[in-house]
What does this fold into?
Amino acid sequence: MLKKWRRLKERITPTDIVMWVIGGAILALIIWGSTATIAAGRYNSHHWFDFVIFGLAQGSIYALIAMGYTLVYGVLRMINFAHSEVFMSGPYTAYFVAAAFYRSDFLDQHPFISLLVIFLVAMITSAGIAFLLERIAYRPLRAAPRLIPLITAIGASFFLQYVFRGLYGSGFQAYPVVKIFEGEWAFGEFRILRFHALVIVAAALLLAALYSFIQRTRIGKAIRAVSEDKEASYMMGIDVDKMISTTFVIGGLAAGAAGVLYALMFKQVHFFMGFIPGIKAFTAAVLGGIGNIPGAMLGGIFLGLIESVGPSLFLDGLGIIAPYQLKDAIAFTMLVLVLIFRPTGILGERLAVKKA
Amino acid sequence: MSITHSLWKTGLKTGLIGGVVSVLLALIGMVEGFSQRDIINEVISMGHTLLLLVVVFITYLSAKRTTSRTKVLALVNSLVTGIVTGIFLVLLVILGNVVNLRSIFVNASPVLYNIMTFGQGLMNGSLLLLVVAALIGLLTGLVYLLPNLLRRVLVTSLSSVVLAGVVQDLLRPTLAAWGPIAVVSEWIFTANGLSLPGAIVLAVVIAIILLFWSFKGKAIQTGVKNLPSGQQRVLRYIGFSILILVFLILPQVLGLFLSEVLTIVGLYVLLGLGLNIVVGYAGLLDLGYVAFFAIGAYTAAILTSPELGFFHFSFWSALPIAIIMGIISGVILGIPVLKMRGDYLAIATLGFGEIIRILVLSDFLRPWLGGAQGVGKIPKASIGSFEFARPQEIYYLILAGCLLVIFISLRLRDSRLGRAWMAMREDEDVAQAMGINLVATKLLAFATGAGFSALSGAIFASKLSSVYPHSFNVMISINIICLIIVGGMGSIPGVIVGSVALVGLPELLREFAEYRLLVYGAALVVMMLLKPEGLWPAEIRRRELHEGEPKTTEQVLPPEGGLSSNEEGA
It folds into this structure.
């Protein structure tokens, strides 16, 4: 009996107990808060539907940005901190195209063509910035210890932010409104804002395209090979440098598209607009298990939903004032909670062995 | 034919890069923004200097990249680069005069074109610009071909003139209080830049000093080295006490603004030394370090501020409580992340930092923490009737804190615990196999770092007399990480150098606020590309990062005989 107890004691360390207590306490709080909120009945099903749609829209944007983080992490094992500026550069540059279309009334006459052009400009700009970033700042540092590229990325992030501030000015620019995406569509008794639908559909299409590109094409296969083992793929005749560049370009394309969706949703662009979505998307990538592509999508959508539904669902019932202020705190608490119980993220298994 | 082709290639390629860079520089507004100020009064403005410096730099690079052994080729290449860069600039001016670039690029104004053409109108000015760029290319090529010593002297003396011009509005008021020096300074400086004779004299004096040092410096150094060890020790003590004395009288000499900068640098040194233990010694990448800074500051604020009215502690009784709170929260936040590694750890700690800030900011906790308005009326620290109120006085408080923390870090580094941290940094699994208790070691690292950070936070609260949640955003954590890496990871002097370089310099150059972070970012990238071990690296790390490179004489490993004799004894 005593021996058994001792063995158990060896296996469960005090820190484990503390962790389970913390995790359990937060879970209990969430359950209590949710029941209290639902019991109080302050929100009806329309509210919840709106929360979920908003969360999905925001989450799919996070998912698109997170793809860039996770792809780059896969091939280089580095946090590309400047990815948020890659995200910002596209829509900010495309803003001038959009504004010109708007002034000439082209935007309202041919909304789909102009949106296509805006998307293309943004995606190409972001991809170009991402390509240059890798070529100039990261490639010489392949062999350096892991903190060095991180600092370089932080520096590049500042640099790009302030270059764009210098080029385009420091003010907020209002993104033009596309008329046919104003207003709402009704499904039975539920209503959905048109631009939310646009964002969700466009992001879903892009994510599907990206995923099948990575899974089905030769280039996608090569990228996956490089992230699995650089040396082995080099020996199999894969041009590793080229594949790393391609990875950055793909991440840039996704980020540029996500940027336009973000600008259409929040209707403004600014040189600092990348910072918060960037951190959120990185969180999403880690949440899903960094380096894991479906994980990044899942993590992004999960984070978007939690941020949108969480404050009202968990906190309102606890009688906390202005719960929406705490949405970021909820997002990060979820992150920490997930990492406590699954230190490698929701879907991350591969990297657990390799000391992520 | 192919030879002549490759002859141009380097020059052309570098010129394309130079053209893009210089056009970018003009378009982001740095040229125009800096042209208000002169380097040399009424001779050359800072905007022009910047533009021309880019040309100088790029043409020099072109000359240096010339692979051919024929020296004239370097000259040709730098000339070509100068011309190409010039063409780019001229194209920008012409394009800007034809099309209105301003609807996209806010800084592409007629003023900019006027500056770029030296106020000579479109045709003449463009021609002049091209000629100047080509001339610079030629001159740089010639400088490149000069003997090493001469080139170094020339470059250093000219760059010190530029530097003196940049910082003149800091130097001039400071030197004005200094009797005889004030006279000299008034002669060298004008209200806007250096005076022409002043600049010439400054350049010549610096050149002479450099020449003297390069001829006699070696002799002096070996002379000192050959002294008996007793005298060397005396010399070192003298040097050390002079250093201490300088630190003690510094704020009295420097005036209000510079002392304020010094206190900010000091606070970052405190923070940096704390994070240095977590990141530099123990290798745990913590991006939420600002949380402990916030906890220290808020603990001090709650305990002392009459505005909240919970407690009425004095600064000195609140300080230890703040530190203890920091240590406790370091352990509490450390426990959940014990099993995480690398980037998972980084993002989880970043999450903690943000959670703390958001909680403090929220209306929910406003009755206790003040919400977005923060907490005010925090009393200053005082000893007897001496109050640490002005920056010049708070400086001493921070200096004392820094000395204490430096002492502790030094002792910790060489202790058993420090060795355990470093073993863990190199490889966790091996460290555990060697019998290191990872849990205790990690938590001690988090706790020590957090304690230092909380100390810094408490001083920060009393310095500002108020705390706001906005002072504790994630950028502070990132800034501290950067200064540690730039200074040299795991190195205590590195932290100090890093704080001066990344916090002090940007504070000094406040008037260029718009471009501060741009330059900061570019400097970080360039620094990491060229000198990844940092400005003042710890010895071990420098060796690691330069593994395989030919060793210079100073870098020879410590005598291996000592090590092997130890093994024999064991």
About this structure: Residues 1-145 of chain B form one domain.
